[in-house]
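Please check this protein record:
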Amino acid sequence: MTNESIERFISRWQAAGGSERANYQLFVGELTELLGLPRPDPARDDTRDNAYVFERRVRFRHGDGAESHGFIDCYRRGAFVLEAKKLRRSGLSPTAFDDALQRARGQAESYARALPAEEGRPPFLVVVDVGNVIELYAEFSRSGATYTPFPDPRSHRIRLTDFRDEAVRARLKALWLDPLSLDPTRATARVTREVAERLAEVAKALEGAGHAPEVVAGFLSRCLFTMFAEDVELLPKRAFSGLIESLRDNPAQFVPLVGELWQAMDKGAFSVAIRAALPRFNGKLFKEPLVLPLTRDQIELLIKAARADWTQVEPAIFGTLLERALDPTERHALGAHYTPRAYVERLVLPTVIEPLRASWSHVQAAALMLANEGKVKEAIAEVRAFHHRLCELKVLDPACGSGNFLYVTLEHMKRLEGEVLNQLDEIGHTQAMLETEGLSVDPHQFLGLEINPRAAAVAEMVLWIGYLQWHFRTRGHVMPPQPVLKDFRNIECRDAVLAYDRMEYVTDARGVPVSRWDGKTTKPHPVTGEQVPDEAAQVPLERYVNPRRAEWPQADVVVGNPPFIGNKRMRAALGDGYVEALRGAWSEMPESADFVMYWWHKAASLVCAGALSRFGFITTNSVTQAFNRRVLERHLAAGDGAAPPSLAAESAECVGRGSPVPLHLAFAVPDHPWVDSADGAAVRIAMTVGAMGAGEGRLLSVTDEREGGGDGLEVQAVERAGVIHADLTIGANVSSAKPMQANGGLSFRGMIPHGEGFLIAPKEGAALDGGSLLRPYRNGKDLTDRPRGVMVIDTFGLSEAGLRSRYPASWQWLYDRVKPERDHNPRKNRRENWWLFGENQPRMRASVEGLSRYIATGQTAKHRIFQFLDASILPDDKLIAIALDDAYFLGVLSSHIHVAWALAAGGWLGVGNDPVYNKSKCFDAFPFPAATPEHQARIRDLAEQIDAHRKRQQAAHAGLTLTGMYNVLEKLKVSLPMTAKEKAIHEMGLVSVLKSLHDELDAAVMEAYGWRDAPSDETILERLVALNAERAAEEARGVVRWLRPAFQHPEAAAVVGRPSGRQETLDIPQGFPSVIGLKPDLQVPAKQPWPATLPEQVAAVARALAEARAPLAEADLAARFTGKGPWKKRLPQLLDTLVALGRARQSGDGWMGV
């Protein structure tokens, strides 16, 4: 490429004329030639082969089942959708330019959404005004988020004359060949990690010199901001780095000269140290400019840190890394993974940004209509009003940590502000006019609560660095208003869920402080050598005076990532006193709820009360399990508006507002990878966004995870729309199913020994009183893999004195191995009864008494497998024991019908994301079929065969596990090729035989339910939910279909017994319709009043088109509204504007939402 070829290209296309269709392919072709890129390929008949072509065909699917087609002007798979327009025609007003460019952008975005899921969305949209300008829009997560101007609203337009700039040509070339390399977070992440590592070196050296970590953290925070300030030229270039380099050999002058510089920065004065007048910085950072004395070597480390390019620091991750660098207890995790920005955006966008952009699109449409009508002042007023609302919106993160959620939100709001300002500029209102009004998105809008003082200080600095980066990126070298750092007090260092007057230590009657083991320090036991609690390591017990719910600052939206502490770990992590105070203050919260659910409940209550518009939180993926799901169910409960009995004042107020659904989930991801910010550990999380009132939401389901180019996994997902239930599903509301008396008292979790000393190998156990107290013991892994052969010392029913006198060897074994740990257990019962299991499950023991066997399944397991265990075997807490010995029940539970139910009802857990069998939802609420004796016999026989087959094959092959067999079975079901190892398992387990038995069992259970139509899983769930409701109604009338009447209700067993009589069809009660196969509802909904303002009219028409299941003609659309005056005359313009902005498509004689 030569300068001559560039000038020839510019000259040729500046003079070009003609229509878009005549010129755009030629323009793109010559552009690729200029840049040394391949030209698009010839199109082929099979669209899947058209990875880089002109006129790529895409298919639009509409709500009524109809399809239409469009053609992308130029498409490159994995890179871009290009939509070209030639718009410079004579006679058009200036506003028509951007009207049509926005039309092209909207069309390109609708094409990107219509691409097949397997191709994914391209990271770029390219909008071309042939011979004039190219606009770039990017969305690097490729997850369906909004495409935003790239690299920012100030410089996303490439004029034809810009091709003389080598950087512009390199950008376009990378867009073609390696578009993801343009993702700025990839480069800035590397720079940020390098900067944090350098700061960590300085911090470590200063702490080694005897300075307190808190003092070091404050000093280095001032240093790093000063480095940033000189790199963005808030200070003269190299002013600070030059100063400290000059002090390398004169360290005695470091304290006075740097101190003088920081004092001048705080006040806005002339600095003698760098010989320059400085702007006033103010803020908290330099109010107490303590400078630490440094040695020559320490100054050298600081010089090394100053050499980094601080303009390229990525604030979204800088806070996390800086916090690790400055905290000596977390510095070991500096090289660990951090939470990727894309993960944070996946929650921030639907919570904050997408609603704002939807509102902006309505305002933008109204402004364009007004401008094209010549009403420029009115158009400007609409856009300015939106900008004012944008600059007043308050976003709160009530567990903000080092501020990454707040920063990402700030950046996206600044991007949106840039687009708003561009629109104002296009219609004649300059940015200088706005500056005189002092309006701008800035850190005062981003509020945080954080209990860690160091993290709170980092969060505030991160916001300011991010804000200033954005200012200089979009405004060039224009200085920001002074003071540069304003003390908004927007980050508060305090507890977000518990307020109290003071914390004091608990004392006994003599005034001596009461203490407990610190929960961490251990020592070797003198007899066993095992690590046991060190009683000398004590911490005082705390009491919180006047504990109460913490109040949150007033905000419009809440978003964040509250701490992941499970309910079982809360006492160890937070202390007994804190947990008691917390649960006392939030008395309506179930004790089984995880710590994060207190944030969820608080935010949901505020939304219901109208104090927030919406909220979004990260929680662990256990939010779908019953112990956390109860909190969601309270707020999502549908019905007549009556609050559940356990719902306390805040939630009751929400429900009392009269909304049948006080809160709905607008967005959810049930399971997603995450990176813990503290130590970089991989965890599994869920995302939920709550909004007021009834409504549908978007459910994102992760379909693929793979290693990418940075931290975290790259995620592929599919999206569904519909009402999202408390279990984070769409479709049949399985979480609404109620436990039934018929199934009650039969399913239990197993024992919780609470002491490894209870477990013993058979040979060792035989020496303890002849093994009299030993019983075989099984946990979940024993079932799915192979039994370990472990025994357990079962002391149930014995007093300590009885155990010591009758079984002295067993007593001594437990005394040496269990008691040392139990002595420090916070539960009095467990401390005092140290020789007994932590949980003995007497009801479970009673339920299996008299049975020769019972059914068991793992609580958390990859495959939902049920099998018989001998009644002599004690189950662990990780097993669910079902006190039924009839193989008929084993067969129904092992069928696909019950497995589908269990998967939908149970939730998911852990990094492996394994399904959980929650007994109350999965078993107690499951409606068994009303099977005839013939059906029961058939199911019973098949279940016995399956149980015997598995046990027989495992006995014959020492290495064969149920997990291995069912892994192969799943591959057989979908005809996937097997590895050599899987083929060996197939032969050892005779897995094809197992599959045949399961297929016959599934058919037999279907027949028992009376279902002969091969229903989908969705239909199965709908029918089971309906049958659950039918059985609940029966039980309310006193008719209970006991599963084991002689045990559950012996006095009624002779009267009712086990029901028989074939259930020929399932009578689905009203209110539980199947949505499978239904035609779209084409009836006209109730008329809505025609809105008063133009943006509201745009929103109303867009909403009506989006909700319609078929194209709406203009008359049909008008029929959905009622109003006075000539309001219908606006409809053609509204529809045309929505089409122009990509919010609607014309289909025949009607319009559909996009």
Notes: The two ends are 42 Å apart (CA to CA). DSSP finds 40 helices and 40 strands in the chain.
